[in-house]
Amino acid sequence: MNTSVAKTTTTSRCLKLDTQMHKDTNERYTHGHHSSVVDQHRRRTVEEAAAFLLPHIEPTMSILDLGCGPGSITIGLARQVPDGGVVGIDIVSDVLEQARELAIDTGTSNVSFNHGDLYSLDYPDNSFDVVYAHQVLQHLTEPISALREIRRLLTPGGIVAVRDADYGTMVHSPDTREIVRWLELYHQITSRNGGEPNAGRYLNGWLHESGFEEIEMSASTWVFHKPAQLLNWGDSWGDRVTKSSFAEHAIEYGLCTVEELEAIANAWRRWARTPNAFFSFLHVEGLGRTSQSR
Ligand SMILES: C[S@@+](CC[C@H](N)C(=O)[O-])C[C@H]1O[C@@H](n2cnc3c(N)ncnc32)[C@H](O)[C@@H]1O
Fold it and tell me: pLDDT confidence of 140, banded at 50, 70, 90?
């Protein structure tokens, strides 16, 4: 491995954890938990990321948020169920600590964050009214196994709610060679890690195949065109392509050089400052229910 990337990555304990393969499926999480990634995830809100689920939530419900990351959406879900509760699960302990701190800072008492592996969770059958997973299935080698585990955990008539990006729908302007290369690299790395970068388009099939009923699909787009949006997205990827697990995996798999990653980072920063720049992509959302008569 090139030493400058190795030096960057070994400074973070989270990154070292993230380089581990899943013990059963051999998948690796492409983004990792460098602050450049987690700071971005922490900006997410229940109002945006779970808009498709909110009309179905009742105040007494118990909700499981799988792959909860830093917990901003999880805490938003907890606000929706003042007479119920929410559990956030993640396979990486460090990010759960950050989620717990956010719960304390926001005074949210009906939420807890536990370490666990979503393929095999230590909860009895029929434990939750709703199981939600945001931007998680795309990173899994076996999304249908994960959905079957979700089905086990749901009460009869319980709701699964999943949302995943589809990287194959990403468009940007001005046309920037390095950003096109970034997207190609993202597909290569994620596929090598066992994930599915175009997961959004497959959610409908995965939900059917794993035995859910009353499936409803929807989609929403992220659009960045205002200066603050462009700066946030472009500068975030400017950092992520050299500091996060993305960089580590790209170099380890021999897909590019550190110099190329630096050129991509600089291109992201230039793009973010280009007047009238534009970026958009699709998120696909799926709702399903377990049978009432299980
Ligand atoms: C893209 S992040 C999404 C975080 C959060 N849901 C959000 O949208 O902000 C995916 C999360 O799934 C977690 N994850 C990946 N594989 C997992 C597994 N097998 N069990 C539990 N969590 C997992 C990762 O550690 C990461 O925090």
Answer: very high
Half-sphere exposure of 52 (CA within 13 A, CB side): 23
In short, whether 250's Cβ falls inside 6 Å of ligand 1 is no
% of the chain surpassing 70 pLDDT: 93
Answer whether CATH 3.40.50.150 is correct for domain 3-289: yes
Cα of 68 vs centre of ligand 1, distance in Å, is 6
Q: Ligand 1 center to residue 42 CA distance, Å? A: 12
163 close to ligand 1 (CB < 6 Angstrom): no
Ligand 1: residue of 44, 63, 91 to mutate (most ligand atoms within 8 A of CB) is 91
- C-alpha 51/C-alpha 73 separation (Å) is 11
Alpha helices in 72-169 (DSSP H): 72-80, 93-105, 143-153
- Alpha-carbon distance of 219 to 60, in angstroms, equals 27
Contact 194 CB / ligand 1 (< 6 Å): no
Q: How far is CA 137 from CA 19, 32, 59, 161, 288, in A?
A: 18, 15, 27, 11, 15
Beta-ladder partners of 171? 280
Domain boundaries, the chain: 3-289
In the chain, beta strands by DSSP E: 62-66, 85-90, 111-115, 128-134, 154-173, 213-224, 278-289
What is the CA(174)–ligand 1 centre distance, in A?
A: 32
Mean pLDDT of 39-66: 97
Distance (Å) from CA 69 to ligand 1 centroid:
5
> What spacing in Å lies between the alpha carbon of 246 and ligand 1's midpoint?
15
**Nearest-angstrom CA–CA distance, 57 and 63:** 9
Predicted local confidence at residue 246, as pLDDT:
95
Give the C-alpha separation, 84 to 62, whole Å.
Answer: 5
The pLDDT of residue 16 is above 60: no
Token pair belonging to 150 = 């979700």
